[in-house]
Amino acid sequence: MEKNEFGKFLKEYMDNHGYKLEAFAAEVGYSFGLISHYINGRRSPSYKFINTFFKKFRLSEKEKIKVLEILKQDKLPEEINELEKKIDNFSEDTRIQNLNSKTRKQFDEFLEEAILMFNDEKIDDEDKEKLIDSLKEVFFKAKELNKRKK
Fold this sequence. Notes:
CATH topology of the largest domain: 434 Repressor (Amino-terminal Domain)
Oligomer: single chain
Order of helices and strands: HHHHHHHHH
CATH class of the largest domain: Mainly Alpha
CATH architecture of the largest domain: Orthogonal Bundle
């Protein structure tokens, strides 16, 4: 596989579903310049883009697996493992799927900052997952409390 397999997949997906670059970019919420970079292989997509792509376009499990396999060629092994974990975690929680873009951005920033605390190798992956799940709960409880105050 070449380094630009994701770009080829994305271009083929857009063609098969009748999307022009600008319309696809608007639908997924990213600039058409960035999407063009993905298609031409100048950039690799972030996990946020992949997650958004999966959610907005309701790819089949087979297509999702194909995308993840393609990304394994473009990214380092540790990056793709992290990507798979994040996508799996986010796609299962309907509360996360139902967030508007502003709240989703707050959630992502909150989680990214919190994850920095877990860079210590002394914490095993199972404990990290438990902590991340707890942080998700804290985030949603805080949001609920803020709604009640208004």
